[in-house]
Amino acid sequence: MNGKKTIQQKVVFDLEMEHENHVYAKTDNLSKTLDYEDISNFIRTFCSECRFKLKETSSGTFVYRVDWQFRLSTLANHDNA
């Protein structure tokens, strides 16, 4: 059990994000769309700063923070680990 604390492990997030893009497509307003670069950077930063002991805590916190940061309509968390 103690070995898990010192060994880096690969983490894979399988996300499905729903965003009301059809509403914003009508206005052609780029600032109202999801910025996938921002989302990718958010994920990288979260993972590099994450210090949770349990993957369940990490994934639950991740889902909450992504939803709060990007105001998504729906976010499904598929924990495959």
Any overview of this molecule?
This protein has 81 residues and is α+β, with helices and mostly antiparallel strands. It has a domain at 36-81. The protein has four helices and two strands, in the order αβαααβ. The chain has helices at 3-6, 21-25, 36-49, 55-70, and strands at 14-18, 74-78. Strands 1-2 form a two-stranded antiparallel sheet. The mean pLDDT is 76.
Comma- or semicolon-separated keywords:
single chain, 81 residues, alpha+beta, two-stranded antiparallel ribbon, 4 helices, 2 strands, 48% helix
Please outline the helices and strands.
Elements: H1 3-6, E1 14-18, H2 21-25, H3 36-49, H4 55-70, E2 74-78
Antiparallel strand pairs: 1-2
In short:
The chain is of the alpha+beta class and 81 residues long.
Quote the average pLDDT: 76
Indicate the percent of residues in helices.
40-55%
Largest sheet: 2 strands, antiparallel
What would you call the structural class?
alpha+beta
Number of helices: 4
Write the H/E string, N to C. Answer: HEHHHE
Low-confidence stretches: none
E-strand count = 2
What is the strand arrangement across the widest sheet?
A: 1-2
Shape: elongated
Termini separation comes to 17 Å
Over all CA atoms, what is the radius of gyration? 15 Å
Strand content: 5-15%
